[in-house]
Amino acid sequence: MTAYDAIVLAGGAARRLGGADKPGLRIGGRALLDRVLAACGDAGTTVVVGGRRPTVRPVTWAREAPQGGGPLAALGAGVRHTAAERLLVLSADLPFLGADTVGSLLAAVGRDGLEGAVCTDQDGCDQPLVAVYRAEPLRRELALLAAEHGGLAGLPLRLLTHELRLSRVAADSLASFDCDTWEDIASARARIREHGLVLDEWITAVKNELAIEIDVDTAVLLDLARDAAHGVARPAAPLTTFLVGYAAAKASSDGGGPEAVAEAARKAAALALRWADETETP
């Protein structure tokens, strides 16, 4: 069973950021909120609790009452718009959260008797806003807390998590990294420019900007660009990859997909190698 709904908390005053619009801050050209939404793209319903803003995919908007009432109040507002048996709960400031971590949390909740699964950071501390909760016990505890305290505003998250039977999931070291300060923002921006991440980050950002949903084999395209640059001329590399993309788009309109890119790249690479062979033949 993979069905779940997602609740993303995108409110808060961001005091350590001087009141900046934290969910809208960009990491690698993408808003923090959009990066989080990408990690839960297969959710049945996605509820964002916070002020309305443009997003890369449709969401349901909600606001806590009173505004600025804290994460429990926001969670209570979001839950009212969901219907799935499992609820993924995330903060909107997780630049490196991936679908793999979401999958691990969902799988952990499937064990008998558990009421949720929470991600733990490198120090072993619970991250209750990187978690999956079963809807019934979550609703129950929220109702009990609201009745006991006259509402959920201002209450700490630990009052909720201490009452639930939770599994702990030690995810990737970056999965629970959140951005609370300008130093965090600078660190995240530097991190995505590291050699092992920058190409995937750039390709994802371009696909989002162009509203396309095709898988790109970067190795194939880089090999093609190398062959065109070495076998023909350096400016041939970007022009050739553009033409390959254009050809793949035409093929896709006839029912092709990612394989259309690979086939177009294969043909162009073979041509570049033939071109090089001619120049090297005495």
TrEMBL record:
Q: Which residues form the DUF6457 domain?
A: 197-279
Asked if the keyword Transferase belongs to this entry, the reply reads yes
Q: Which GO terms describe its molecular function?
A: transferase activity
What InterPro entries has UniProt attached to this entry?
DUF6457, MobA-like_NTP_Trfase, Molybde_CF_guanTrfase, Nucleotide-diphossugar_trans
User: Boundaries of each MobA-like NTP transferase domain copy?
Assistant: 6-150
Q: Which Gene3D superfamilies match?
A: Spore Coat Polysaccharide Biosynthesis Protein SpsA, Chain A
Keyword Transferase applies: yes
Question: In which domain of life is the source organism classified?
Answer: Bacteria
Q: Name one Pfam family in it.
A: DUF6457
List the keywords (alphabetical): Cytoplasm, GTP-binding, Magnesium, Metal-binding, Molybdenum cofactor biosynthesis, Nucleotide-binding, Transferase
Q: Which PANTHER family match?
A: MOLYBDENUM COFACTOR GUANYLYLTRANSFERASE
Which named protein is this?
A: NTP transferase domain-containing protein
